[in-house]
């Protein structure tokens, strides 16, 4: 079977689709990946044959994909939530399709069109554990559960565990300022924790001299690091949220925009994390919240309970075996 994946050209939108794409390739399906060139390198390294449809750089519009569908004639299109144009093009071409989520269903008003508005009735590959998913989405949509599997991207990480608590700090690749990172670093370092910072859009040298026990890197292979951390302090992006939940790590959210506030609210309500809003972020508040999360008890227990829920979700290989069935239903 020929399977075409399509996504926005960003780490946050592309990487959640990669585990299923790899599993589909391993199951013997012919896999291609339509996406802007920003993420071609890691996709090509895994044999997923990425290409840029038409003049696509970030978004994919229906007119971008239509000639590629005619050329490739896939049997199934797996389109990320962020590319409703790909869903439209597949529908118009009479090709079955699946929506593929990147986490909890995002709220209205963040700059993305809700999936299914123009192309309803298609199942959603849902990588969010049901206990954290939007209740309305759970009730209204046909879902194909898929375990969220962190995709490491380039690089590797030294997994030696430090003797003191290990904290991972990131504000993602699209958000963050030196001021917020510096305030967070000051608070985390004050607790005596070992801190690894992924600076994303901020250059490491913009952070100035770092306290003892703090290292800053432009990029961290998150999937390698997360199994070894005690707490994750981050912006609330879906990938980092689900990655931390998968390993049972409590989280301190510093949401900045997009769907991050909704993710922070859901995890905090579940007892697996705490949140500081933008006007609350300061070194003292960060230190106080980290000390709370490092104590054994409710937050750690809740995070581990969600990790157990995630471990029971179907694997990418499980869902890849169902792709022919799902294509026939489409």
Set down the secondary structure blueprint:
Elements: E1 2-6, H1 11-14, H2 18-26, E2 30-34, H3 40-45, E3 50-51, H4 62-72, E4 76-80, H5 84-92, E5 97-100, E6 124-126, H6 135-140, E7 143-145, E8 166-170, H7 178-189, E9 194-198, E10 214-217, H8 222-225, E11 231-234, H9 238-246, E12 251-253, H10 260-269, E13 273-275, H11 283-294, H12 298-311, H13 316-329
Parallel strand pairs: 1-2, 1-4, 2-3, 4-5, 5-6, 6-7, 8-9, 8-11, 9-10, 11-12, 12-13
Helix pairs in contact: 2-13, 4-5, 7-11
Shape: globular
Secondary-structure content class? alpha/beta
Unreliable stretches, pLDDT < 50, 5 or more residues?
A: none
Radius of gyration: 20 Å
The fraction of residues in strands falls at 15-25%
| CATH architectural type of the largest domain | 3-Layer(aba) Sandwich
- End-to-end CA span: 14 Å
What's the helix count?
13
Mean pLDDT, as a whole number? 94
Query: What is the CATH level 1 assignment of the largest domain?
Result: Alpha Beta
Fold-level CATH name of the largest domain: Rossmann fold
N-to-C series of helices and strands: EHHEHEHEHEEHEEHEEHEHEHEHHH
Main sheet: which strands, in order across?
A: 3-2-1-4-5-6-7
Helical residue percent band? 25-40%
Largest sheet: 7 strands, parallel
> How many strands in all?
13
CATH superfamily of the largest domain: Glycogen Phosphorylase B
How many domains? The number is 2
């Amino acid at each position: 079977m020929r399977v075409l994946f399509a996504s926005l050209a960003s780490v946050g939108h592309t990487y959640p689709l990669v585990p299923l794409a790899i599993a589909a390739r391993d199951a013997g399906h012919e896999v291609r990946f339509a996406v802007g060139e920003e993420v071609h390198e890691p996709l090509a390294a895994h044999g997923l044959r990425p290409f840029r449809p038409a003049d696509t750089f970030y978004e994919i519009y229906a007119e971008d994909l239509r000639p590629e569908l005619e050329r490739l004639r896939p049997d199934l299109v797996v389109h990320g939530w962020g590319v409703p144009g790909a869903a439209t093009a597949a529908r118009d071409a009479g090709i079955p399709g699946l929506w593929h989520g990147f986490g909890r269903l995002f709220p209205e008003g963040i700059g993305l069109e809700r999936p299914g508005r123009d192309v309803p009735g298609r199942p959603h590959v849902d990588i969010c554990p049901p206990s954290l998913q939007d209740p309305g989405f759970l009730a209204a949509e046909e879902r194909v559960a898929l375990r969220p599997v962190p995709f490491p991207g380039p690089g590797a990480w030294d997994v030696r565990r430090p003797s003191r608590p290990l904290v991972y700090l990131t504000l993602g690749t699209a958000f963050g300022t030196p001021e917020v990172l510096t305030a967070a670093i000051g608070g985390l370092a004050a607790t005596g924790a070992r801190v690894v910072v992924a600076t994303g859009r901020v250059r490491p040298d913009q952070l100035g001299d770092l306290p003892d026990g703090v290292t800053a890197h432009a990029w961290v292979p998150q999937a390698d690091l997360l199994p070894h951390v005690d707490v994750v302090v981050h912006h609330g992006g879906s990938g980092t949220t689900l990655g931390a939940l998968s390993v049972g790590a409590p989280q301190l959210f510093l949401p900045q925009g997009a769907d991050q506030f909704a993710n922070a609210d859901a995890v905090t309500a579940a007892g697996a994390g705490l949140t500081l809003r933008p006007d609350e972020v300061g070194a003292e508040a960060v230190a106080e919240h980290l000390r709370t999360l490092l104590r054994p008890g409710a937050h750690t227990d809740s995070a581990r309970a969600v990790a157990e829920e995630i471990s029971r979700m179907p694997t990418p290989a499980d869902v890849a075996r169902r792709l022919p069935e799902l294509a026939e239903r489409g």
